[in-house]
Amino acid sequence: MDKQRVKEFAGRVFTDMAGAMAAGMGYLGTQTGLFRAMAGQGPMQLDQVVAAAGLQTRYVEEWLKGMVAAGYLDHDPEAESFELPDEHAFLVASEGTDHFMGGLFHMAPVLMQVAPRVATAFTEGGGVPFTHYGPEGVAALDLINRGQYEHRLTGEWLTALPEITERLADGGRVLDVGCGVGRVCLALAQAFPHADIVGIDPDAGSIERAVALAQEEGLSERIRFIAKTTTEFEPGDGFDLITACDCVHDFTAPQQTLDEIRRLLKPDGVLFVVEPKVADDLLDNRNPVATMFYGFSLFHCMTQSLADGGPGLGTCLGPAGLTALLREAGFSRVDTLPIRSQVNHFYAARP
């Protein structure tokens, strides 16, 4: 046995456990407003952080020390001060922007709470249904994705499909499959005031939240949200654009659903797909992003599909797997779109 390798791996285990604890402390920083309270304030002493955040001193003290240990905060021992660097605040104290990463921290407790049930599924089969994650799961997904959809969907991503955006500007029809709380539909409605926009999702709680958000934004007259699947939905005159953002790998019946999506498209329509950015070759996935996605898969995406009798494609379906599904569903042309992202792949599929 290589003792040096044992030692190095022990260090890796400690590093990974530290990462888990840092994610938990990151959740506390976003949930309690500590990151926001420290953003742009420069060096702060304990009592200043407590006053700015309005929180309990002993908890704040331990959190500050933990975040220094994790490298999230700077510390000056002589001044007894703590500082959230601007570069860090840019990512963790910027909710609603396209660069906010704090939503990831909110997934940590959501996913870990189902770990015992997932462990049981290893021996008994089945999985954890989506409804088990509750409002906290829906809110965490929204925090992760909201800024991307609000700031990049129409202004960056869909510019790769100029013929479609022209149609939407003139009053085309859009369907967002797996719409969740409706952020894609809301962004489309803001950018294309003449378009007919529909969002469908089987989760009634998500649809209820989507309806409320549309009312808050004054867009409820221009968007329809429906708690249905593609099987139950009638196409009418068909859609110019169908979006499936971060959900194809979750489908309980992926082949059937993609068949139905193709049926819902107009003959010259486009299916726009966003999927996690992973490689087809497992050895190319030895990196933090892919590791995170495999965790998301086990504790969320794969298990909820299996819970409903689906194939459990998993978060790391990959480009080859997705393309094969689309081809089998009858899409004659599948293009990978040249959109830059650290975490997403983008595709356009045509009948």
The number of domains: 2
CATH topology of the largest domain: Rossmann fold
Give the termini distance in whole angstroms: 56 Å
Number of strands: 10
Query: What is the arithmetic mean of pLDDT?
Result: 96
Number of H- or I-type helical stretches: 14
Question: How much is the radius of gyration in Å?
Answer: 22 Å
Share of residues in helices = 40-55%
Catalogue the unreliable spans.
Answer: none
- Under the CATH scheme, the architecture of the largest domain is 3-Layer(aba) Sandwich
Query: What form results from the Cα inertia axes?
Result: globular
Strand order of the largest sheet: 6-5-4-7-8-10-9
CATH homologous superfamily grouping of the largest domain? Vaccinia Virus protein VP39
Any overview of this molecule?
This protein is α/β, with parallel strands linked by helices. The chain folds into 2 domains: 3-93, Winged helix-like DNA-binding domain superfamily/Winged helix DNA-binding domain (Arc Repressor Mutant, subunit A, Orthogonal Bundle), CATH 1.10.10; 111-350, Rossmann fold (3-Layer(aba) Sandwich). It is built from 14 helices and 10 strands. The protein has helices at 3-31, 34-38, 46-53, 57-70, 86-92, 102-112, 115-124, 134-152, 162-169, 183-191, 204-216, 254-264, 288-307, 318-328; strands at residues 44-45, 74-76, 81-83, 173-177, 196-200, 223-226, 239-245, 265-276, 333-336, 344-350. The strands form 2 sheets. Strands 6-5-4-7-8-10-9 form a 7-stranded mixed beta sheet, sandwiched between helices. Strands 1-3-2 form a 3-stranded antiparallel beta sheet. Helix 3 (46-53) packs across helix 4 (57-70). The protein starts with a helix and ends with a strand.
